[in-house]
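re the bet — no i am not wrong, look at it urself. input seq straight from the record:
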Amino acid sequence: MVLSFPPFNSANLKPRFYSHQHEAEHKNKKNILSLSFFVFLFRSVFFLSFFLSFFLSFFLNYYSFLFLSYISFFFFLSSLFFLFKFFLYSNFYRISLFLSCSFFPILFLPAFFLFLPSFLPSFLPSFLPSFLPSFLPSFLPSFRFSVMHSSFLPF
């Protein structure tokens, strides 16, 4: 009894091997790009929370909001590390789009800090008490008093 096999052709194996390798590389790039997108969302949330808490600490002068702004700014700086992964696994168009979306608001920081004291106090006293809950004026001054008179603060 003679067993017959189909004719062996080594050229048929190469495209299959290369297609699997290409598919794995494409999946790896897709995972890295989705990771960088979620890191961008993560940074955006903490960057917005930094500005919101700094805004509240600037006008309400509560150290709890200032502490939250420092924490959120720390998360914003620590997540910049994932930008290098985006440089490794994407083309120039996506890099430039990512950089323009993530670092363009930083250009407005000097203008934000220069013009904020001049135009916000004019409408803030009439605007702020309308959206603050009723428990905040009774809760936060006691917290402010306890934080201001703590022993770890230098002033």
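see?? The chain is about 75% helix and 0% strand. told u. also Residues 127-155 have pLDDT under 50 and may be disordered. so pay up
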